[in-house]
Sequence to fold (217 residues):
Amino acid sequence: MENWYEKTREKTEHIFNAISKHGFVIDLMHGTLDKDIFGFYVNQDSLYLSEYKKSLVTVGTKCHRAEETQFFYESATGIIEVEDALHKQFLEDKYRSPTPSPTCELYNSYVARIVNNESVEVGIAAVLPCFTIYKEVGDFIIKNQENKDSNIYQSWIETYVSDEFAAAVQQAIDIANTYALTASPQNLLKMEEAFIKTSQLEWMFWDSAYKQEAWKI
Fold:
């Protein structure tokens, strides 16, 4: 299996299509996304990343090669530091809340369970969509938008189409493909399941932000 990611990504095409057509992404692209919705999203994203960093470190600790460990450690600090800077830019005090939404809680809990209890290759598959989907969303918006000079969210968009982010995404894909080459048939199935499920959770995260999801009781 020379390109596990490419073959598995094909199975999530319907998920990415749903993300790219979602009102959150479309409104973001047009610069018409309600500021309260975006503020809610940025706060939840901050809460999500605070736990996702830990999952990246856990995956890095399990990796077999030093350069892979270094990549995930640096991803937990360098790449996400850029996103932290965006949060400082866009997250006004009135949107700050310490309470994760149900979807944010679910996403973090699922990823943490996988990276802590499954093999390294399954953990890598679980954290991968957060890399790849954001790059695809950024590419989609840049390709289709007509308001690059006036979109109030443009600096957020540009973060995910930078050369640095593209290089990090490709490295994450390459690492996943490398581990897939030696994974057992059972773990290949688990890798696919984890990748598909966290791709679904990415859609759910956008959707929950658009609805400003709250606990029902």
Q: What stands out?
A: The first helix runs from residue 4 to 10. The radius of gyration is 17 Å. The chain has one domain: 45-210.
